Amino acid sequence: MVFLKLGIKENWLQFLLLAVINVFVGSMVGIERTVLPLLGEKQFGLTSMSAALSFIISFGFSKAIVNYFAGQIADYIGRKRVLLLGWIIGVFVPLLIIVAHKWWVVVLANVLLGMNQGLTWSMTVNMKIDISKQNERGMAVGLNEFAGYSGVAVMAAVSGYIASSYSFRPEPFYLGIAVALVGIVLSTVVRDTRQHLQLQMGDAQKGKRVEQQLSAKEVFQLVTWKHKTLSSLSFAGLATNLKDGMAWGLFPLYFTVSGLSVRQIGVIVAIYPAAWGLFQLVTGALSDKIGRKWMITYGMLLQSFAIWFILVVNHFFFWVVGAVFLGLGTAMVYPTLQAATSDVAAPCWRASAMGVYRFWRDSGYALGALIAGMVADVLGVTWAMGLVALLPFSAGVLVYARMDETIEETV
Question: What parts of the sequence cross the membrane (predicted)?
Answer without folding.
Answer: 12-31, 51-70, 82-100, 106-125, 146-166, 172-190, 235-255, 261-282, 317-337, 382-401
